[in-house]
Amino acid sequence: MPQLAERHGTLVADFEAFRAASAYGPEWLRTARASAFGRFLERGFPTTRDEEWKFTNVTPIAQIDWHRAKKTSGVFFSGAGAKKTLDVVSIRAVIVNGRVSAELSTLDELPEGVTISTKQEAWETMPAHEGPSLKSDHPFVLLNTAFFEDGLFIHIAPHAVVTEPIHIVCVAEPGAEPTMVSPRVFVVVGEQAQVSIVETYTSGDGQPVLTNAVTEVLLGPGAIVDHVKVQQESASTFHMSSTFVHLHRASTFTSHAITFGGRIARNDISATLAGEGAECTLNGLYVADGETLVDTHTTIDHAQPHCPSHEVYKGILTGKARGVFNGKIIVRPDAQKTDAKQTNKALLLSGDASINTKPQLEIFADDVKCTHGATIGQLDDNQMFYLRARGIHRNDARNMLIHAFASDVLNGIKHDAIRAELEAVLVSKLHLPT
Amino acid sequence: MLLEIKDLRVKAEDKEILTGLNLSVNPGEVHAIMGPNGSGKSTLARILSGHPGYEATGGTVTYDGKDLLDMDPEERACEGVFMAFQYPVEIPGVNNQYFLKAALNAVRKYKGQPELDAIEFIQLVKEKAKLLEMDQAMLNRAVNEGFSGGEKKRNEIFQMAVLEPRLAILDETDSGLDIDALRVVANGVNALRSPERAIIVVTHYQRLLDYIVPDFVHVLSSGKIVRSGGKELALELEAKGYGWIEDAVGARA
Q1: ipTM of the complex
Q2: How far is A200 from chain B (nearest CA, A)?
Q3: Domain ranges, residue A434
Q4: B-chain residues within 8 Å CB-CB of A378?
Q5: Cross-chain residue pair B102–A394, CB shorter than 8 Å
Q6: B211 in contact with A, Cβ within 8 Å
Q7: Crossing angle for the helix pair A9-19 and A27-43, nearest 10 degrees?
Q8: Contact (CB<8Å) A382/B93
Q9: Under DSSP, is residue A323 helix (H, G, I), strand (E, B) or coil?
Q10: pLDDT digits over B48-100, tens only?
């Protein structure tokens, strides 16, 4: 143990200091935090000997002496770029280095049925919470539980239909020393309510940043949630994100996870279909260049009968980028008539890019339909030639085919302004001519 | 002269397929290239369009005074060379109309003409679609995706009608077409015949030539043209079969 304690010396010292802060929270949360940090210290950062981290070596993260994020003004996040990110949706909560910024957020006039609590008071008034994120043994989730500051609590009242999306913007600002930022978002959607949530992650360049985010979404019976997560952090940022989704009877959750940035970006999405007729769609697009590593681990847990789930993940990798996709589907003994479909496709645009992809089906019921498929390939030569033979320049043809590859994931995003913005980012990210 | 091919030798996958082919095409002419399977018909069409799988190892191809073989496929298209594919490629995720607009504007830009805006383009497309009896729904689908064989071929000629090439090469456009589709496609091609435009029709069968009547017919065998004549040569081939030509050529050799 002394060796581990020493390696995490700064974290331990910062955790001790955090205990005295008001953000440390009420009794139940203090207990949860202490327990989580203890469990984290016992195991430390994961290694490639852990099955869940086999292809994702986080040594570059483990080697850094991380400091709990300081309160900042968020000044780097200003100017035209920030405005573009912010103005895309009118209802927004901006979280800078894990703390909600009242100045940048627009939470004064919320639609009926929407409550957004931005301060630790939300945790005070909440009953002791035992959601899936607090049960998780994921090392980065434990670390987030120990260190998250404000937390953002969104509640949608039963039967409320919220037409305008709610935009959560998580900004990480590098400091003088390596900074660990721990945003925590908690969404509860009441029975028959409907809402769309957009999360955007962005960060500045400079000293290393570890964005270690946890989002939890609980859907009441018949609730409908559309969730978009866009990660476009800088190359000096490590992005670790865990999303937990719990679906009650006949609820519908649709996720669009778009990853453009970070040096190592890991997304864990874990959805539990806990009631009959619940439906879950997990779609994703990741684009990586340079020496970036993008890892997606999804788990869809079919605990109840008659639940369909759909999953389409697409990756575009260039340079020396690496991709990892692990799609786990669990079908519990009671989950008869499950209909699960998973597709993972990767497009490798350079000889040095690579992907490790693994479907993982654990089926314990007999009357189910589960399909999975993975393809890895380059741009199709015949399609390229066909476009060029009609006069379209090689670069434009390439652009068109990459767009086409990404289109079924991007087209699933209903909000036009967000989709248009993502298409523009895709083009610039791949240095495609416009 | 629009196109002049001299002693062209072409290799694909290390095998020499064209073995010294000569052909001259003037504006306004329709040339039919016929021949048995494996004679090199499609290779000729593909080398002219710049297909990356084919390599010219000898000879020259001069198009409008320029070295055609030196140009990228897109440059050839912009210069007015169009190949209707034997097997049109499906491109899921790329809208047919979007693709065609990009192609047309690339060609127009190359020629120094202003690009068409959305409204001008739609008007043009509507007019050309009528010619090929194309359904509006087909235009809004992804390029060739889920199209029947006939629809794909019609789409090729429709693209040709929109792009208005100076040299059109139809690579076995008749294969897989029933008689009704064949008529539609042939009508589309005939509507594009003009004194400025040359058409090379590559086909195995004489049937298409009942509808697209050629000025010249050439018979290809083992990678070179072994006989040329007028439209009656096609009828003679139909009656006697390719064996007749091969025997005659073999006897001469």
Answers
A1: 0.96
A2: 26
A3: 382-434
A4: none
A5: no
A6: no
A7: 170
A8: no
A9: strand
A10: 999 999 999 999 999 999 999 999 999 999 999 999 999 999 999 999 999 99
